[in-house]
Amino acid sequence: MARRIDKSKLKCNKPRPIKQGEAGYGEKKRVVLACKGGQQKLIKFGSADYRHNYSAPANENFRSRMRCDTDPPDKLSARYWACESLWARRKKRK
User: Fold this and answer.
1) pLDDT for 35-91, tens place per residue?
2) Which residues are CB-contacts of 52 (< 8 A; sequence separation ≥ 6)?
3) What pLDDT is attached to residue 9?
4) Whole-model pTM?
5) Vertex 37: Cα angle to 36 and 39 (nearest 5)
6) What is the pLDDT at residue 51?
């Protein structure tokens, strides 16, 4: 049986990888205790099935597909953390 993630040990808005043995390991990549306006929510995000294709075209495709720039998500959603943590904006090369 997987052990629960202890919310008291997590810092607000600081994502970290899910450790082996914790609930969600093998299903999701990261976990974050999202805090906004007095609310707290434990969010697991990022599919563990997708490996490490964070190339520029893949990044652009994900950000457009998830509407990261045109329709910004709420901080208490997994979409927000995927956009900001896993698929962050890239600087354009000159």
Assistant:
1) 999 899 999 998 888 777 778 888 888 889 999 988 888 899 999 999 988 888 876
2) none
3) 83
4) 0.83
5) 65
6) 74
CB-CB contact of 65 with 58 (8 Å): no
Token couple for 80: 């927000």
β-strand partners of 24: none
Task: Give the contacts of 24 (CB within 8 A, at least 6 positions apart).
Answer: 2, 5, 18, 31, 44
Residues linked to residue 33 through DSSP beta bridges, in sequence order = 12, 42
- 27 and 48 in contact (C-beta within 8 Å)? yes
pLDDT at 24: 84
Residue 8, classified by CB atoms within 10 Å of its CB into exposed (0-12), middle (13-18) or buried (19+), is exposed
Q: Which residue in 29, 35, 27, 49 sits closest to 7, CA to CA?
A: 35
Query: Which tokens belong to 17?
Result: 């990888």
Cβ atoms of 56 and 34 within 8 Å: the answer is: no
DSSP conformational letter for 22: B
Q: Is 14 left (phi over 0), alpha (psi -120 to 50) or beta?
A: beta
